[in-house]
Fold this sequence. Notes:
Elements: H1 11-18, E1 24-27, H2 36-43, E2 51-58, E3 63-69, H3 76-83, E4 88-90, H4 93-100, E5 118-121, E6 129-133, E7 139-144, H5 145-152, E8 155-157
Parallel strand pairs: 3-5, 5-8
Antiparallel strand pairs: 1-7, 2-3, 2-4, 6-7
Amino acid sequence: MARKEKEIKTNAMRMLDRMKIPYEVLQYEVPDFEDGSQVADLEGVSHEESFKTLVMQGKSGEHYVFVLPIDREVDLKAAARAVGEKSVEMIHVKDLTPLTGYVRGGCSPIGMKKAFPTVIAEEAEGFEKIYVSGGRIGSTLHLKTADLARAAGARFAAFTV
């Protein structure tokens, strides 16, 4: 009798399970992570509905999580306004894992080591469901946009270009 392979659960998935939020997991293999567009292409999913997670630091020293479409960039001034800061900037990649528990390419807005103020780009409100990282490279979550906002304690704002 063959053994059933155990599904790998990430912090993001465990948190969604605890909150009884339904989600779908998409698995993919990627030789070298490049960006969210590469992942969407590997999974055969819509670029418009695929979102990336960026962690930034405000002038105050506070950290913030921004969720935005994979093909968009952050307008730093608008992002700072969205979180009430004078300015924000990306954190260094070397600081991502110690701060969030996630690696570049596998950073989910759900289930970080600490809950940071989270803002989802207003573009997400146009979709019932979106795709976000599942908490590790090779794993994507597909869930209702409203459920993502609830799980991440997020609000929506305009901060992309």
